[in-house]
Every structure is written in structure tokens, then in C-alpha cells.
Amino acid sequence: MKMNDIKTAPFMTKAIMLISNMYRLGWDERNGGNLSYILYDQDINEFLDTTQVIRKIPINFNARELRNKIFLVTGTGKYFKNVEYNPEENLGVIQISEDGEYANLLWGFLDGGTFTSELPSHLMSHIERLKEDNHHRVVIHTHPTNLIAMTLIHELDEKSFTKTLWKLATECIVVFPEGVGVLPWMLCGNTDIGRATADKIKGFRACVWAAHGIFGTGTSLDETFGLIETIEKAAEIYMLCQGQQIINSITDDQLKAIALAFKVKVKAGWLL
User: Distance between CA 268 and CA 23 in Å, rounded?
Assistant: First the structure.
């Protein structure tokens, strides 16, 4: 059966637009940042023959819990600014093998490349988020400028970090009522930071990496981007206020009122 051009698939055009947007926001300098997106059969049926495997790529992590799941992923060493001009070289569609040891490449990485070095970290987080929400689909890692700056001058206790963000803008407690996880600086690109992030992702949809960036998760590209965007906006306000006395931040009682009005469940014990 003749397949339609995968570059015209709605999931592909949406992902390319989002990746390009993150680059233009300055969040993904050089080859920084990565994305993985679970694809359903209805997303790809008319665009890709999943029985045609181009090559098998070792994952260096056993992802058996995700066996047979299909992902759109960014490539290692790839620049986000190039994705919209050459998606077939900078992106790939992979399927996790039955034994969880390999990613079967179904499309992309045309230059012989491979998936992001952070893929094991992504897969660990996918595993944990799917346990919490079976509609989960997306992991985005990116480097928002103001959020990174905030990690350099704010204590890294996640309750304190979260409450600072909540009190800077009304929408924050609505968008991430469970708060944000926070990790101290760790070496990236290995399973240690992946495991630590996945442990945080059990209770939070976003995990801040000190002096590095953020891991955000969600049920759609828009939701995940919006989560990161809201956290970064609050961090920007925080950085703009440095050196000035804040006299009108949102109080705990006002945060409770917001949560009640919008019917969101706030992290237990984090408000007075």
C-alpha cells in the first residue's frame, strides 16, 4: 500500500513547529535539548509501514516495559534550528524491540545518526509517567534561560523553589499544582541522572536540573510545552525582580483560593 508523506503527518508538523519555536525562544542553543513523543497507530497508519525496519540501534538500557511502543525522537548532536529544514536527518521514528534492548529505526536519521543520548532518561520517565497517567505521551528536555539562572541563586529545595514560582504569577499553581521536582547538578547523558529524574517524575510532571534545564512531561505536545513555558515565565519574573524588594507576592491564603476556584489538587502540606 502506498503511504502518504510522513513529513505531512499532523504529529510531525506539530512537533517540528514546537521544536522550531523552542529554538527561537533561545531554549535550545547549539545541539541542546531533546524530545520524545509516543505515537499511536492512528497517528502513523497511513504514513509508515512499521514492519519495515531500517536498522536496529542498541539503547543501552532495558526498556521492556515500553516494548513495541513507537516514538518520534530527536537525534544526538542535532541542532533544533535545522529540524524544520531537514526533518528526515534530524528526527527519527523508532519502535522499542520486544526484548527492550533495541530501538528499531522505522524512519529518519538519514545521515546514519542515532537518537538523543538522553533517550534512556526519556524512556525511564515515560515508564514512570505511564504508571501515573495512561494518557501520557511526551517528554521534552530543554534549557530555558531564566529557569537556569534561577537555579544558580535560589535554594534547590523543591518545596521552596515551587512556592517561589507559585507566588510570582497567578496561573502557576493552576498549571503545576503538584509543584516541580528539583535535582542538584548532575552529570548528564547517563542513566544516573535518568534514574534520579524518573524518581522525581513519579510525583511531578516537571523536574528542574540545576545549572542545566528542565524535563517536562505531558499528554500532548501543547500541554508539555505549556507547562515548561509557564515555569520559565515565572522564573523570568523572579530574575527581573532581583535586587528589588517584593512587597506584593501572592500569599498562601490567596494560593488556596486560586486552587479552590480552579479545582486543582495542590501538593499536600505545601501551603500553610
Answer: 36
Q: What is the pLDDT of residues 169-215, one digit of tens each?
A: 999 999 999 999 999 999 887 788 989 999 999 999 999 999 999 99
CATH number for the 118-272 domain, one of 3.30.870.10, 3.10.350.10, 3.40.50.360, 3.40.225.10? Answer: 3.40.225.10
Among residues 118, 128, 158, 236, which one is catalytic?
118
Give CATH for domain 1-117. 3.40.225.10
Are 1-117 and 118-272 equal in CATH topology?
yes
Q: What is the pLDDT of residue 60?
A: 85
State the helix-helix crossing angle for 221-240 and 145-153, rounded to 10 degrees. 50
End-to-end alpha-carbon separation of the chain, Å?
Answer: 62
Residue type, 133: D
Check if 118 is active-site: yes
Task: Output phi, psi for 171, to 5 deg.
Answer: -75, -15
Strands (E) located in the chain: 34-39, 55-58, 70-74, 91-96, 102-108, 138-142, 181-183, 206-209, 213-218
